[in-house]
Amino acid sequence: MNLRLTAAVAVGKLLIMALRVVGRAGTTLPGRVALALAPDLISEICRAVDNRIVVTGTNGKTTTSAMLDAVFRSAGQKVVRNVSGANLASGVASSLIEHATLAGHLLADILILELDEAAIPSLAPQVRPRLAVVTNLFRDQLDRFGELDRTATFVRRSLASAREVACLNADDPQVAGFQRSLPDGCRPVMYGVELSAPQQRPVPEHGVGVDVQYCFECGARFFYDFTTYGHLGHYTCPQCSSARPSLHVMGLITGGEEAVGGRVQLRLSGELAREAGVTELEINLRVPGIYNIYNALAAAAAAVASGVAAEDVRAGLEAFTGAFGRMERVQVSSGEFSLALVKNPAGFNEVLRTVQEDAGDKVLVLAVNDHAADGRDISWLWDVQFAQFSDSPEVSFISSGLRAHDMAVRLKYAQVPRERITVVPEPSAAVEAALDSSGGSAEVFVLCTYTAMLSLRSELSSRGAVPDMWKGVR
Amino acid sequence: MRIRIAHLYPDLMNLYGDRGNIIALRRRCEWRGIEVQVEAIDVGGQLGPGDWDLLFIGGGQDRQQELVWRDLQDKKDALLQAAEDGVVMLAVCGGYQLFGRSYQTSVGEQIPGVGIFDMETVAGENRIIGDAVIESSLLLEPRTLVGFENHAGRTRLGEGSRPLGSVLVGRGNNGRDDSEGCVCGNAFGTYLHGSFLPKNPHFTDHLLSRVLERRGESPALASLDDDLEWQAHETARLRARRVTRRFRPRSLR
Fold it and tell me: Do the domain assignments include residue A404?
């Protein structure tokens, strides 16, 4: 027995218990203290489970991890994963300590860790995952990462630690390019979306939340057959031979626009199809939005590549009803609302599109904070599209959070009439005001940046409305 | 009355919501019944002289600025002529750097700039990142300009160059001499984004007044209800003071 490790785990466990007694989540401090006592704690505990999966990328880490969790559970496997958002070293360590025995063993078949893009260079070599998933790379928290290209470099280099499989989003040119730099013995599994003709969408307008449009090989501007969201889609370079690679896991979306929220036909090819024993699988997702289709494809690709049977993949994905704070339905005494996290232009645009699929009267609470975890630079709000609301009398807005006024100015300059913009800086007061003004007839949607969501949740959970953060995710 | 705005490289140079600046210029004209036409000028695009009232360039990533600086050399003469003719210009962050004389990258490569601003920029070791507040050298009321800065470059203004303002919170041009941005005639450069213009309606109107003046019109603009803009300005100012370590050069302490 490694006494140093045991001591660190014991101290961490005690701290978690103590913090929860005083009503805190204990997702960082215990890990930080334990890491100070046993710096190798993460790699030591990880060693106990061979099947280790890491999920990284800008958007969809939490949902993809939660979907994978659901899939492995439906296959009867015991899963351990880190708490939503606790994806830096201290958070990963806290989660591991919570589930480990005092000897530092994890009693699990699978370990799923979502890792922050900036923390992954140091964490990936410690975790040494069997399989790595990269969801996408959008501009996000540039004040922390500097520039998107730097983030891409972090992720690309960290893939050197993937032992067997890298599941890469083929529709994201930058992520797809990582397949060229995988280590020996690590095979790429490329996943992406195919749309049937009627839903093809135009290439995004000039400079609107679009990050990658230029070929990494030759610098020419990519031509898109279609885009699904942001810069994701089917691209080819008009100048050199670069193009979206062929797909091992294809998500074929058939039917009308509303079907984008749900049904997807999975088509597997090559080795994966042989492993899974099927080539086609129809899945009815219970979560809306094209971004959730990507999350489901990522989870399906990782699960199939881990030997999960196709039926269990379907059962797990169809049972999945949403991750922490991702379009969650929340009940409070004065009414009901949907709660979603927004953290960058691409994600915000997609959540707004999902909101607009609901045709009735709506009240949107937009709560924007500028703490480090939200991104201190809020200029990204100007890359979110709001112009579609200038002529929508059925939608009214309450801007909230520490940067409530910036949000309100953004709406004003998108030509949303002033009388449809109210400013209520305190998030829980904003939610109350929204429920009041909706009078039960309008749908209320609450879109929050990370810390705005945490403060709203703690306010709501003190009234018993939502489960505490660490109970809400498992 | 119609104002023509050239937006240089809207795809390549839009790192920090820079398009918000164009939106602000457009709306504040339209709300006053002034027509606005915005044209995108991309790599290889023509920039005819005398065509424009206002010209805007934002910031980009290193890889994109690489494409841009080469193209700017082709447009250099037209841009210098436009500056001489008093075309109003706003250059933010990466665009600001490229409108100077030169930019030296982290590996020592010397990239030539357009030379509208008499200044030189050298890549520093660390990025300067944070909220910033400056006291403007222009006759604005209030004097403060607010924004967010995120740049590796350290910019030194030439002798006789006039900064846009002095740093109250943040680091500015180089983190040493207290200066932020540059003004040369009707050309304005700054590191501040956030977006910059929406939160600084007085400066936006200052640019528009200069456009009108140059066109031989009265520079007076109808007043607008800027209640939300000023609250955002004030919030940014207060958040900056709380979040960003106050910076004062030793000489001023």
Answer: yes
Chain B contact present for A406, CB below 8 A: yes
Q: Which of B14, B63, B225 sits opposite A149 (nearest CB)?
A: B63
- Asked if the bond preceding B142 is cis, omega within 30° of 0, the reply is yes
CATH of the domain at A301: 3.40.1190.10
Strand order in the sheet with A110-114: A79-81, A110-114, A51-56, A131-134, A165-169, A187-195, A249-253, A263-268, A280-284
Catalytic annotation on B93?
Answer: yes
Q: Angle formed by the axes of helices A3-21 and A29-37, to 10°?
A: 160
CA atoms of A452 and A402, how far apart (whole Å):
8
**Chain A, nearest residue to B66 by Cα:** A219
Tell me if A30 is assigned to some domain: no
Contacts of A378 in chain B (CB under 8 A): 148, 194
User: Which residue of A377, A407, A411 is the best one to mutate when testing the B interface, meaning the one whose CB has the most B CBs within 10 A?
Assistant: A377
φ, ψ of residue B116 to 5 degrees: the values are -70, -40
User: What's the CA dihedral at A87, A91, A93, A96 to 10 degrees?
Assistant: -80
* Mean pLDDT score, A187-206: 69
- Statement to judge: residues A187 and A314 lie in one domain: yes
Q: Is B184 annotated as catalytic? A: no
> In the prediction, which pLDDT does A142 show?
61
What's the pLDDT at A208? Answer: 46
Catalytic residue among B93, B151, B184, B206: B93
> For chain B, what is the domain count?
1
Interface test with A, best of B7, B8, B11, B128 (most A CBs within 10 A): B11
Separation between Cα atoms, residue A349 and residue B15, nearest integer Å: 17
With an 8 Å Cβ cutoff, is A413 touching chain B?
yes
Residue A402 touches chain B, beta carbons under 8 Å: yes
Best A221, A379, A398, A407 member to test B by mutation, with max B CBs in 10 Å, is: A379
CATH number at residue A348: 3.90.190.20
Contact by Cβ (8 Å): A175, A153 = no
Residue-range definition of the domain harbouring residue A385: 326-472
The reply to whether A383 and A277 lie within a common domain is: no
Residue in chain B lying closest to A384 (CA): B17
- Per the domain annotation, does A93 fall within a domain? no
Choice between A335 and A131, residue whose per-residue pLDDT is larger: A131
What digits encode the pLDDT tens for the residues A402-421?
999 999 999 999 999 999 99
Give the pair of three-digit tokens for residue A18.
């103590």
* Contact across the interface for B67 and A219, Cβ inside 8 Å: yes
Q: What is the pLDDT along chain B (253 residues), one digit of tens a residue?
A: 899 999 999 988 888 889 999 999 999 999 999 999 999 999 999 887 667 999 999 998 877 788 899 999 999 999 999 999 999 999 999 999 999 999 998 888 999 999 999 999 999 988 899 999 999 999 999 999 999 999 999 999 999 899 999 999 999 999 999 999 999 999 999 999 989 999 999 999 999 999 999 999 999 999 999 999 999 999 999 998 875 554 444 443 3
- What the block records as the tokens of B129 is 């990142």
Whole-angstrom distance, CA of residue A128 vs CA of residue B225: 58
Co-location of A334 and A254 in the same domain: no
Dihedral of CA A333/A334/A336/A340: which sign?
Answer: negative
Find, among A120, A151, A125, A126, the residue nearest to A136 by Cα.
A151
- B80/A contact by beta carbon, under 8 A: no
Candidates B7, B193, B202, B206; catalytic one: B193
What is the span of the domain harbouring residue B196?
A: 2-252
Chain A from 352 to 381: CB within 8 A of any B CB: 370, 376-381
